[in-house]
Design the sequence.
């Protein structure tokens, strides 16, 4: 189940070389070579459970971006024996879940994705949705829509609003504005932690360094 594929770009214009497409159900991203319309690579993106419309290429395909839709467990590492209870899911949602905006480095000659040169920016545990890269005077920025800033998790058996009702209580959700050019500098300065094989800029660092802004 895939949505909203991204074409490679040169100077902000589609160049017809490669196509990148998300796996809606499993947080994967695939790369198709448009010279022969064959899939050349499928990558499981760490720390992502799902992605809907968060695919875009930066204006010169330095990166292809994929963001989470449903938030994932924060800093979860099953190999270290970490466990989360059902009670944690219901009552500590804001603490233990995060979204992730992922900038996957692209080999400029082959279009293949390079995980070791990629990075993520931790986002609040909202549901991130459609996304695109800024162009022209906005080059260097990425934009992601969101909903469920209420952080509703359902739970009608516990007397809470059903999941269909909870996320629609507020008038506005947030547009995420991400300065990915500056994020490159933050990563180069070593202000990240490695989590499940990818470099991650924490939400706190993203705020402190001016990488992330939320607009209603």
Sequence:
């Amino acid at each position: 189940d895939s949505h909203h594929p991204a074409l490679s770009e040169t100077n902000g214009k589609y160049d017809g070389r490669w196509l990148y497409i998300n796996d809606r159900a499993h947080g994967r991203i695939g790369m198709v070579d448009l010279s022969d319309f064959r899939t050349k690579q499928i990558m499981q993106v760490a720390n992502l459970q799902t992605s809907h419309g968060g695919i875009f290429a930066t204006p010169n395909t330095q990166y292809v971006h994929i963001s989470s839709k449903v938030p994932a467990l924060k800093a979860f590492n099953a190999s270290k024996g970490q466990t989360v209870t059902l009670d944690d899911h219901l009552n500590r949602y804001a603490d233990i879940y995060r979204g992730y905006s992922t900038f996957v480095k692209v080999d400029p000659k082959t279009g293949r994705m390079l995980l070791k040169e990629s990075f993520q920016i931790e986002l609040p545990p909202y549901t991130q949705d459609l996304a695109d890269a800024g162009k022209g005077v906005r080059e260097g920025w990425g934009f992601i829509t969101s909903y469920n800033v209420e952080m509703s998790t359902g739970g009608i058996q516990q007397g809470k609003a059903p999941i269909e009702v909870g996320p629609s209580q507020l008038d506005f959700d947030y547009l995420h504005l991400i300065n990915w050019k500056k994020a490159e500098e933050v990563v180069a300065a070593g202000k990240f932690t490695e989590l499940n094989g990818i470099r991650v800029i924490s939400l706190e660092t993203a705020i402190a360094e001016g990488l992330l802004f939320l607009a209603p």
About this structure: The two ends are 30 Å apart (CA to CA). The chain has four helices and 15 strands. Residues 180-188 form the longest helix (9 residues).
